[in-house]
C-alpha cells in the first residue's frame, strides 16, 4: 500500500511541476531562462516536485484552519456575544463542538468522500498504470483520513481544546469510513454512478447544504439552553459512538471485494471526458445567450445608429444581452426587497426597545455592508458575459488589444456597470430609510447617511474592481475555464477580506471616509494599470 501511495504522489508531483513550469516560463525575464526540455526531465521534476508538495501541505493546513475559523470559531463567537447582550450566558466551546460535529462528521464524510472524485489521476493510475484497485482505494482512503486528522488537530489545539482533541480527530478518522461504506454499499446494489449517489441535481445539492447549515447555525442561534455549559461526558459518549460505528465500517470497507468493478464504473475515459465537457458548459451557461433571447426586431433595430465606434459596439452588446444582465440585477433586487420588507414587517410588531437596538445596529453596520455589497455586485458575471459573447471573437484582432481601444472600452463599460449596480444599491438605501422611519428615528436620519453613502461607494468600488481584474488578468479561455491563478487568488483574498469586515466594530462615518479614500485612489490607479498593462494581459488564453 505504501508503494501505491508513493506512485500516486509521484504522478501528482510530475503534473504539478508541469503546471509550475508553465507559469514560471510566463514570467518576464525569468521565464526565458527556463529551457523547454525541462518538461521531459522526469528525475528533475521529481526533485522539483517537493516545492508544490510543500505548498500543498501548507495549503491543506491553512485551508482547514480557515474552515474552522470561518465556519465554527467566528460563528460561535458571534452566537455567544449575541446572547450575552440579552443577559444569557452561552459556553462558546460547547457551540464549537456542536458545529464541528454537525458540519465535519456525517455530512463531511459523505460530501467530501474521495471515492467518488473520478479524477483524471484515478483513470491514469487505475487503467493506464494498472495499479490494483483494492490497493489504490485503500491507500487513497487512509491518506485522506490521516491528512484530515492532522489538519484538524491544529485548529482544535489552537482554539483551546486540550486532550479531547485526540478523541475528536480519531473519531473523525473512523467516521470518514461511514461515508465510504455507504457509497460502496450503494454500488453493491445499484448501477448508478458515484456522482449520483445522494443527489441527481444541483438544486438538491444546495438543498442538502441548506439543511446542514440550518441544523448547525439555526439550532445554535435559536436554542441557547443547549449550550449553557459543556456536557463533557455527553460529548465523550457521542464521539465514542461515532468511533465504534466507524471502526465497524472500517472493517467492512477494508474487506470489500468489489473494488475492481467499482473502479470500472466510477472511472472511465468516456465518463471523464463527458464530465469535463459538462463542467465547461456549466461554467458559461449562465452568461451565454440563446437564440430565443434575441428577437428579429432587436437585430434589425436602428436604435443606436447615432452612435459610432466602441460606443456603438457596447450599446449593441448590452441591448442584445439585456436579458442576461437584467436577470443578474433582478435577482439581487428581489432578494434585497424580500429581506427589507420582511424586516420592515417585523419592526411593526416589536417593542420600542427592540426598535432602538435595531437603529443603533444600523448606525454601526458599515463594515457589514462591505460583505453585502461584494455579494450584491453584478460586475463579475457581466464581465464573464462580455468575454463569452463579445471579446472572445474581437480579441483575435490586434487593433482591439491596443492601449487606446482598451481604455475606451474600459471607460464605456465602467459607466454601464455603475448604472446597473446603482439600482440595487439605491434600493438598499431606500430600505435603510424605511427601517429608520419604522424605528421612529426619522429625526436622527443623519446617523444612517454614512451607511447609505458607503453602500453607494462600495457598489462603485466593486464594479471597478471586477472590471479591473477582467482587463488585467483576463482569466477566461475558449474552453470555458478559468486559467489565471492570479485572478483566483486575488478574488479569494478579496472575499476573505470582505468576510473579515463582518468582525470590525467602528463608527460608520470613519469607515465611510476610509471607503471613499480607497475608491478615489483606486480609480486613477486602475486607469493607469489598464492603459499600461492590459495590452499585454487582455488576450485569449
Automatic annotation (TrEMBL):
Keywords: Membrane, Transmembrane, Transmembrane helix
Transmembrane parts of this sequence: 47-74, 94-112, 205-227, 233-254, 333-351, 357-375, 417-438, 444-472, 484-505, 511-534
Protein name: Uncharacterized protein
Lineage: Bacteria, Bacillati, Bacillota, Clostridia, Lachnospirales
